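Model it.
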Amino acid sequence: MELMVPVKDGEVWAQDSGGPGGPAGPGGSGGDALPLVLLHPGVADSRVWDGILPRLTEGRRVIRYDARGYGRSPAPTASFSLVEDLIAVLDHFDVARAFIAASSMGGTTAIGLALRDPARVAGLALLVPGITGNPDFLMEEFTAEVGRLAQVGDMDGIVALVKRTSAAAASGDDPETDALIRAVVPAWFAVHPHHVPDPPAFDRLGELTVPCVLALGEHDDPEVVRCNEEMAARIPGCRLVRLRDSDHFPTLREPEAVADIIVGAYTAAK
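Modeled.
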């Protein structure tokens, strides 16, 4: 089931697979099964999950959505919080508690919810996650270069920059990654004026009480790798997985390994 979900001063596109734990009636069977919610990265929209979605929906209710301005969701016209949008989506689908698999920007959102309302999060599978509040993880040079290229209208330059820093594990032509990046670059500029960052979380990672696995990509930007290592060390009981053939697009580089990580963590959290 695909639909537009209302959020504060806007709406987002969402998809609910139904199945165990889904709504009663066509497409859903009701019950108390634990839903799995997927949060996409800032370098792609929710299509980044397409390759592993059939595996994830086997016997599970899966909900995914496009953040404002990404994919099939309209650009924001008012200030908004990613965590509050996630809460609005969960409320819309009557999900009181979910397991969350989240990549990069989505990881920032998932951690924010787990700190704000841990009762709503059964567990976390974090893929190359971002984080608020880490003074050593600002990506200032990258942000400045994107801004410079944007000023001269060099879309190809922005795509090439993102691929150099975040898609180093690709060999030769990589049209899938190229298309995903090219599709989200306009979202960065549409979202930036309206996005209100959620509270700093880096120094609060020790407060997380939910089961957590964190997977980093060995070919990711070194600054991201260092941040992910420190995040895993700060989260109590967090299991760190190193994906040897992945960069910032693990669902594309090692889809089976990523699916195994998510399904295993989900099963353990039930």
